[in-house]
Specification:
The protein has 427 residues and is an alpha/beta fold. The protein has two domains: 2-83, DNA polymerase, domain 1 (Orthogonal Bundle); 88-397, Aldolase class I (TIM Barrel). Helix content is 36%, strand content 15%. It contains 14 helices and twelve strands. The protein has helices spanning 2-20, 31-40, 46-57, 71-79, 134-137, 149-161, 198-212, 235-249, 264-271, 288-294, 303-312, 335-345, 370-382, 406-412, and strands at residues 88-94, 100-105, 111-117, 167-171, 175-177, 192-195, 220-225, 256-260, 278-282, 321-327, 350-356, 387-389. The strands form two sheets. The protein has a ten-stranded mixed sheet, covered by helices on one side. A two-stranded antiparallel ribbon has the order 5-6. Helix 2 crosses helix 3, helix 7 (198-212) crosses helix 8 (235-249) and helix 12 (335-345) runs parallel beside helix 13 (370-382). The chain is elongated, with a radius of gyration of 23 Å. It starts with a helix and ends in a 15-residue tail after the last helix. Mean pLDDT is 84; it is low at 1-5, 121-150, 152-164 and 408-427. The structure holds S-adenosyl-L-homocysteine. Residues 180, 182, 184-185, 226, 230, 259-261, 282, 284, 324, 326, 355, 357-358, 401-402 line the site of S-adenosyl-L-homocysteine.
Length: 427
């Protein structure tokens, strides 16, 4: 009798507490939070694992689908305002190169863009998917020695010789819009609307995996935090999402890369994390005057602070830092810039991904000619810095780096040129 009363009391407390809590979505809760949730509801501990499996592995979209839970518990959760919180795919756009740009909507009507790049290329041509690819170790990246043509040929052969599992890359967003104001980036034109929750960050991955009918670790999935937003300005949620992606979704740490515009204090914090993606830093200029012009945040955290943070960053075995460098015709792409950049990076265990500007309306820069890109790459390589040219993905559907903006803008203020982009038929 006492037991029954206690149980009832606990359940009432549970219902009251849950309806007061802010987080009502299972997506985004970690093991401890789910354990607390089931224990507050007076359910056995193993229910937490069942919820984790359902939400992060089976990727259910409603409580009704969590068939391992007793009906009564599901009803109680629903009554207390708990939902799965799955992200909803509002639209998708397909590129001629196979890249898919998803428009993903959340409960409050805000949306972000998430990009699916099938058959990643190992990163050296540059989709960011270098995270953990076996081919990398054969590239001979040491921080002092650039991979020779022979190294690359061997790596290419190895890639062809081994059976080819799927090796796709998902590029995810961390904020709605962005506050950093990089002058060459379309997302910057939006300003920042809000941070994404950890559940919304993980939710993008779950929605895309489900849509693509793939599952890590069986399918090799790389993840880059290089979509809309500055992950290090939404640090706690980004880190929680990273841990959930490793522990609950099953994506290995070494297959994830986060890119920061250079929020120096967070680079230091990030180095202290036990579970973390690999680090990429958007360099984009070879001296302070140029970088401040292109990336106003350089006034706050200048190149000396940034490069010092990179030098002090505790790298793991076979890990290196990636520097991204967006090449803007006639602005930061001269041979002098290349030499200056090489000077900044000398002795760092790093590689450089060169990205020729992806153009867009409202962006007053031009894309440099291919020869200038190659010349820049060669100067870096001759200075002993591994440098790769990123192949643009999905430019025709505004899915490439720095182009994630148009669909969101179109939702509020239609832009005529968008109409040439046709969504993929669902189903
Ligand atoms: N805020 C983070 C991650 C998002 S941007 C960061 O700044 O790193 C991801 C990459 O795209 C960055 O390296 C950025 O410099 C690059 N980028 C931005 N706009 C671009 C454009 N128009 N063309 C090519 N690359 C761009």
């Amino acid at each position: 009798m006492t037991y029954a009363l206690d149980t009832q009391l606990n359940r009432t407390i549970f219902l009251t507490t849950m309806s007061r809590t802010q987080t009502h979505t299972l997506l985004g809760m970690d093991r401890e939070e789910l354990t607390a949730l089931v224990s507050e509801a007076d359910e056995s501990g193993y229910r937490a694992k069942q919820i984790m499996d359902a939400v992060y592995r089976q990727r259910v979209e409603s409580l009704a689908e969590i068939s391992t839970l007793p009906q009564g518990f599901r009803e109680e959760l629903a009554a207390s305002g708990v939902t799965v919180g799955a992200a909803r795919i509002e639209n998708k756009f397909v590129s001629q190169d196979g890249t898919l740009r998803y428009l993903i909507a959340f409960a409050d009507g805000q949306s972000v863009e998430t990009v699916w790049m099938p058959e990643g290329d190992g990163g050296e041509a540059g989709d960011g998917s270098e995270a953990g690819d076996e081919a990398d170790s054969s590239l001979g990246i040491s921080g002092t020695k650039a991979p020779s043509e022979k190294d690359e040929a061997v790596a290419a052969l190895k890639r062809c010789a081994t059976p080819k599992p799927s090796r796709s890359t998902i590029c995810i967003s961390s904020q709605v819009g962005c506050a950093v104001d990089c002058q060459f980036c379309l997302t910057a034109l939006l300003g920042v609307k809000r941070n994404l929750t950890a559940g919304e960050i993980v939710g993008q991955v779950c929605a895309v995996l489900k849509d693509q009918k793939v599952s890590p670790p069986e399918d090799r999935i790389n993840l880059v935090f290089m979509g809309m937003g500055e992950p290090f300005l939404n640090y706690e949620n980004f880190m929680k999402a990273s841990r959930l992606l490793v522990e609950a979704v099953g994506i290995a740490e070494r297959r994830m890369t986060v890119s920061t515009a250079g929020i120096v204090p967070r680079i230091h914090d990030f180095g202290q994390e036990t579970i973390r993606p690999k680090l990429a830093i958007s360099l984009n200029a070879s001296n302070d005057a140029l970088r401040t012009r292109l990336m106003p945040l350089n006034k706050k955290w200048n190149l000396e602070m940034l490069i010092t943070a990179a030098r002090e960053f505790p790298l793991r075995t076979r890990e290196w830092i990636t520097f991204e460098y967006v090449l803007l015709g006639g602005v930061n792409d001269t041979p002098e810039n290349a030499k200056e950049a090489a000077g900044l990076l000398r002795g760092l265990r790093c590689k450089v991904n060169l990205i020729a500007l992806n153009p867009g309306p409202g962006i007053d820069f031009t894309t440099p000619a291919a020869e200038r890109v190659t010349a820049f790459q060669n100067i870096l390589r001759e200075a002993g810095i591994p440098a790769f040219v990123r192949r643009p993905r999905g430019r025709d559907i505004y899915a490439a780096c720095g182009q994630l903006k148009r669909t969101v803008a179109a939702a509020t203020s239609p832009e005529p040129r968008l109409q040439s982009i046709s969504p993929v038929a669902e189903g």
